[in-house]
Design a protein that fits this description.
The structure holds three protein chains of three kinds. Chain A is an alpha+beta fold. Chain A is built from four helices and five strands. Chain C is of the alpha/beta class. The longest helix of chain C is centred in the N-terminal third of the chain and has 18 residues, at 23-40. The chains are: A alpha+beta, B alpha/beta, C alpha/beta. The B-C interface holds B 179-180, 183-184, 186-187, 190-192, 214-215, 217-225, 265-267 and C 80, 82-88, 90-92, 96-97, 102-105, 108-109, 120-121. Bound molecules: adenosine-5'-triphosphate and magnesium ion. Chain C: InterPro entries: Bact_StressResp_Reg, STAS_dom, STAS_dom_sf.
């Protein structure tokens, strides 16, 4: 599977991103629980891209490490960025009306998690989940 | 460019490439006894030979751990993995590499520089052997996991009550498999009560206690209750010392007590049931 | 926009989610349910999520809000049919949905809400 670029500019796009991530996770033979964890993390991150990043996109692709297969998903926007990443990752912190569980929760649900962001410079979150 | 210890051996190998591959393939094919097609083998060996000769020709040609050998190592990992998964023996796998020596000796004139080349092949052969062993380990680990799943008995005790009697050391991986299976059984049997009996578990660490706790919360989200039975004094101490909140989770000393609790909540009249069964 | 159908069964309302949930549908459901509870005088709401393959923080928050909302309107909400993988994931995400009643399936959910059945658990 080649990398798939999906736009995120509305609620329907969040659903499409979830479906693309699910398809990639099935193809990479992730267990049902791991598929569910990854798709849920993707849902959180796609919604953040939409709500806080003012829209952006997602890149979904299969990755390999030796015999292991996995799925990598990158969420990017050109929004306001995050000034205090540690604070944003704290469970319960929200600048909006959420529960502040999205970022921290997404990090717990995946195997690899990275945020690249700077105030005024947009946000890119990369996650990877490996088949067990 | 040809580096010092190998003289012009690499150039001569390149010139005799077709003959070399033919001899090499013949040796390898004999050891694999036709279980891989000639065509496949030809492609595999040509690719490998090309990578080896290119690596040897670099300044780091004598050092198989150098970056120059990156592609060679990648190809050998693939080769040994494929062989291990296809069920070839370590010997049959390593021969694919070692046989290159004889092929070179037979198809080109070799001098003293052959020793250095031979050393390189020995190193690569050992590397192949190691990655073969690694793959076998992975295969065995996978099988162990499957066995684990089989060895997790979730038993139905009553209509609506299942029990998971855990025996032996619980590590984090096993705890996860076991708990997933328990939750699935709740759905499959339509059970609202699950008894997790840990009488046979000598000790738990933080991670395992956390798994237990998460399973109980997950079961609640699904509409089922868990009861834990058989908590040993040491485990109770661990749980308290770790500050893990078991909160309003029902715990009972024995599996029997736990079953009675579940039956009571379902509204089963045990004495009536017993007389119904003539007990 | 597609709206989720709300069925009235006796004194109860049943929402069986069968599609991929969009956030705007979730928000609309919340509004529709509040209206229907008042309109019908329903005493209970059963939300069947058997078909949902994920519940994220947004949907989770919606379920909690619906439960709180219906309680204010004198109706109980029960969420039924959550899949094991979804439940495991929700716990890892950090949502335990405290205070929400749950049941394995629609039948048990309805029993839990009916005046006599609630006592068993
Ligand atoms: N892409 C982004 N661009 C800018 N800020 C972001 C982005 N993603 C997250 N944030 C900031 O991080 C905070 C925490 O995000 P998180 O997803 O954890 O919680 P939330 O979205 O507010 O609530 P929830 O996800 O639980 O509904 C957000 O409130 C927001 O301030
Ligand atoms: Mg969020």
């Amino acid at each position: 599977m080649t990398a798939q670029e999906l736009p995120i500019s509305g609620d329907a796009d969040v659903v499409r991103v979830r479906q693309a991530v699910r398809a990639a996770a099935v193809e990479a033979k992730l267990s049902l629980v791991d598929q569910t964890k990854l798709v849920t993390a993707a849902s959180e991150l796609a919604r953040n891209t939409l709500t806080y990043g003012g829209g952006g996109g997602a890149v979904v692709e299969q990755v390999t490490k030796g015999l292991r297969k996995g799925v990598k998903a990158v969420f990017h926007d050109k929004g306001p960025g995050i000034a205090d990443v540690a604070q944003a990752l704290t469970d319960g912190f929200t600048s909006g009306s959420g529960m502040g569980l999205g970022l921290g929760g997404a990090r717990r649900l995946v195997d690899e998690f990275a945020i690249e962001t700077a105030p005024g410079d947009g946000t890119t979150v990369t996650v990877v989940k490996w088949a067990r | 460019m040809t580096s010092e210890p190998f003289g012009d051996l690499i150039d001569r190998c390149r010139a005799a490439e077709d003959d070399l591959v033919r001899r090499w393939r013949a040796d390898v094919a004999a050891s694999l006894r036709g279980r891989i097609s000639e065509l496949e083998l030809d492609k595999e060996l040509r690719e490998l030979l090309d990578a080896v000769l290119s690596a040897v020709a670099t300044a780091d040609g004598a050092d198989t751990r150098s970056a120059a050998y990156g592609e060679v190592r990648a190809l050998l990992v693939d080769l040994s993995r494929a062989r291990a998964l296809q069920g070839f023996s370590p010997r049959e796998t390593a021969i694919s590499v070692f046989a290159l020596k004889r092929a070179v000796r037979e198809s080109v004139e070799v001098g003293p520089e052959f020793t250095a080349f031979s050393d390189v092949i020995d190193e690569l052969g050992l590397f192949t052997f190691e990655s073969y062993a690694k793959t076998r380990e992975e295969v065995i680990a996978n099988q162990a996991e499957q066995l684990l799943e089989l060895a997790t008995p979730v038993v139905k005790l009553w209509h609506g009550v299942v029990a998971l009697p855990l025996v032996g050391t619980l590590d984090s991986a096993r705890a996860q498999v076991v708990m997933e299976k328990l939750l699935q059984t709740l759905v499959d049997t339509g059970s609202e009560y699950a008894i997790i009996d840990i009488t046979g578990v000598p000790a738990v660490d933080t991670q395992v206690a956390q798994h237990l706790l998460k399973t109980i919360v997950a079961a609640r989200l699904m509409g089922a209750e868990c009861i834990i039975s058989g908590i040993r004094p040491q485990i109770a101490q661990t749980i308290v010392a770790l500050g893990i909140e078991f909160g309003d989770i029902a715990t009972k000393a024995t599996l029997a007590d736990a079953l009675l609790l579940a039956l009571g909540r379902i509204g089963v009249d045990v004495t009536a049931e017993m007389s119904k069964r003539g007990l | 926009m597609e709206r989720l159908p709300i069925l009235k069964i006796g004194q109860m309302l049943l929402v069986s989610i069968q599609v991929d949930l969009r956030d705007d549908m979730v928000v609309a459901l919340q509004e529709d349910l509040a209206e229907r509870i008042v309109e019908t005088g329903a005493r209970g709401v059963v939300i069947d999520i058997t078909a949902l393959d994920i519940v994220d923080s947004f949907t989770g928050r919606m379920l909690a809000t619906i439960a709180a909302l219906s309680r204010v309107l004198d109706a109980e909400t029960v969420v039924v049919g959550m899949r094991p993988a979804v439940a495991i994931t929700l716990v890892e995400l950090g949502l335990s949905l405290d205070g929400i009643k749950t049941a394995l399936d629609v039948e048990r959910g309805i029993r839990l809400l009916s005046p006599a059945g609630g006592a068993a658990r």
